[in-house]
Amino acid sequence: MISRKEIFFYAKDKYGIEPDYPWVRTPNYAILRHKANRKWFGAIVDITEDKLGLAGNKLIDALLLKCNPILIGSLRSETGILPGYHMSKKHWITVLLDGSCPKSRTFELIDFSYELTR
């Protein structure tokens, strides 16, 4: 399992980025964005499983990341990686933070998203 706190620490340590909480209606939705161009490279949301096409309605944390469209198909075949939630499914993926996607892979995908949105 990887926590929000670990992702925030990683973003702060590697990129000097602090999470942004722009919406009053969804106070747990945290955005990771570049300082210079303000583009998002990640978002952590808490959402029910059914909204991600999963069985159940338990509230879970998920990380939305930008991805190269050429790689999305192969990435979505990996455990814990789903189509982008509430974003373009052609350019975004959803990484479950339940431990099904290894931490090292999650950090690689964060770096990839950061570079794509730079």
Summarize the structure.
With 118 residues, this protein is of the alpha+beta class. The chain has helices spanning 4-15, 69-75, 103-116, and strands at residues 30-33, 40-48, 59-66, 81-83, 92-96.
Low-confidence segments, given as residue ranges, are: none
The CA-CA distance between the termini, in Å, is: 28 Å
The neighbouring-strand order within the major sheet is: 1-2-3-5-4
Using only CA atoms, what is the Rg? 13 Å
Helicity level: 25-40%
Global geometry: globular
Quote the average pLDDT.
94
Indicate the proportion of strand residues: 15-25%
Q: How many E strands?
A: 5
Which structural category fits the helices and strands?
A: alpha+beta
What kind of sheet is the major sheet?
5 strands, antiparallel
Layout of strands and helices, then pairs:
Blueprint (H helix, E strand, L loop, with lengths): L3 H12 L14 E4 L6 E9 L10 E8 L2 H7 L5 E3 L8 E5 L6 H14 L2
Antiparallel strand pairs: 1-2, 2-3, 3-5, 4-5
Give a verbal description of the structure.
The protein has 118 residues and is α+β, with helices and mostly antiparallel strands. Among the domains are: 1-30, no CATH class; 54-61 and 72-97, no CATH class. Helices cover 28% and strands 25% of the residues. The protein contains three helices and five strands. The chain has helices at residues 4-15, 69-75, 103-116, and strands at residues 30-33, 40-48, 59-66, 81-83, 92-96. The protein has a five-stranded antiparallel sheet with strand order 1-2-3-5-4. The radius of gyration is 13 Å and the shape is globular. It starts with a helix and ends with a helix.
